[in-house]
């Protein structure tokens, strides 16, 4: 399954790289076309409708959907894995030896009752933030957040971040998540239009805010990391699905299915770039750049 539209691959700019290093995130407007928004939004809202029906996956206590393994759940979203305008940030920052380790779709309709105070602030990566001893900890992964609804005003369940916090291992907070506590000083609710993208370092301290507006919040999220880090998504059975034949080789790599090199089984370590589809795609386009460690040919 290829992209709905396929612009030329280009690397992120030096200014974007400097801003990302400073703030820990980028807001990129107009990444998806109207047709791409429609394809993705229709698929995600379809999953939301099915989840709420008898025998469906079920919705959360506020009627929201948070469904993991985005492409396994909705093969129609495969074009978001390597959408050239968005994916450029992944290979520019992490290189070619990557896969999607964690993805999800989210639908958050209006909440009608005030929710109990809860400290949602976190860094992605789970145990990585407990078990890696460096300060600051390494990036390890970068996430793409595609917005499929209008969050151009605050109060719509906006993605909330603390700019520059990706180089801070600990964020002062309450003694437990259920204790009322003020938001971190400098917290920013990101506003975005449908089709906009947020790219963020997994270390960025962030939180989801509650949606009390009449606008349903809809998004799709893809976290990329090195192939030598285990994935959380359920993708093992994807090659047995009818849709698999329609995925391109880079998409298959990103979904955890890649040639085995010489058969030794350590392909995820990147010892065999020649058999790694993304390496080949970048080489073919002349985008392997020896000045960037992750893109050294």
From TrEMBL:
InterPro entries membership: Phytyl_CoA_dOase-like (IPR008775)
GO terms, molecular function: 2-oxoglutarate-dependent dioxygenase activity; iron ion binding
Stored Pfam families: PhyH
Domain of life: Bacteria
Listed SUPFAM superfamilies: Clavaminate synthase-like (SSF51197)
Record's protein name: Ectoine hydroxylase-related dioxygenase (Phytanoyl-CoA dioxygenase family)
Organism: Paractinoplanes abujensis
């Amino acid at each position: 399954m290829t992209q709905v539209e396929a612009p030329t691959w280009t690397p992120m700019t030096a200014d974007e790289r400097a801003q990302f290093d400073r703030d820990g995130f980028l807001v990129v407007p107009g990444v998806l076309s109207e047709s791409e928004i429609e394809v993705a939004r229709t698929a995600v809202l379809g999953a939301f409708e099915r989840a709420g029906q008898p025998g469906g996956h079920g919705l959360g206590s506020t009627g929201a959907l948070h469904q993991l393994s985005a492409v396994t759940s909705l093969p129609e979203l495969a074009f978001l894995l390597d959408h050239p305008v968005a994916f450029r940030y992944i290979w520019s920052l992490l290189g070619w030896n990557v896969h999607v380790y964690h993805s999800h779709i989210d639908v958050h309709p209006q909440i009608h009752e005030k929710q109990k105070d809860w400290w949602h602030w976190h860094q992605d990566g789970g145990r990585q933030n407990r078990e890696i001893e460096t300060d600051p900890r390494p990036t390890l992964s970068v996430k793409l957040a595609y917005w499929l609804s209008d969050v151009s005003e605050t109060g719509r369940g906006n993605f909330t971040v603390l700019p520059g916090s990706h180089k801070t291992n600990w964020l002062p907070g309450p003694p437990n998540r259920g204790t009322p506590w003020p938001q971190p000083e400098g917290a920013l609710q990101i506003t975005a239009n449908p089709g906009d993208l947020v790219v963020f370092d997994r270390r960025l301290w962030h939180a989801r805010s509650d949606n009390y507006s009449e606008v349903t919040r809809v998004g799709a999220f893809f976290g990329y990391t090195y192939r030598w880090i285990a994935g959380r998504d359920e993708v093992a059975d994807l090659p047995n699905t009818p849709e698999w034949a329609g995925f391109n080789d880079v998409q298959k790599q990103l979904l955890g299915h890649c040639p085995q090199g010489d058969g030794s089984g350590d392909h995820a370590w990147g010892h065999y770039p020649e058999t790694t589809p993304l390496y080949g795609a970048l080489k073919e386009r002349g985008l392997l750049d020896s000045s960037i460690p992750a893109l050294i040919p």
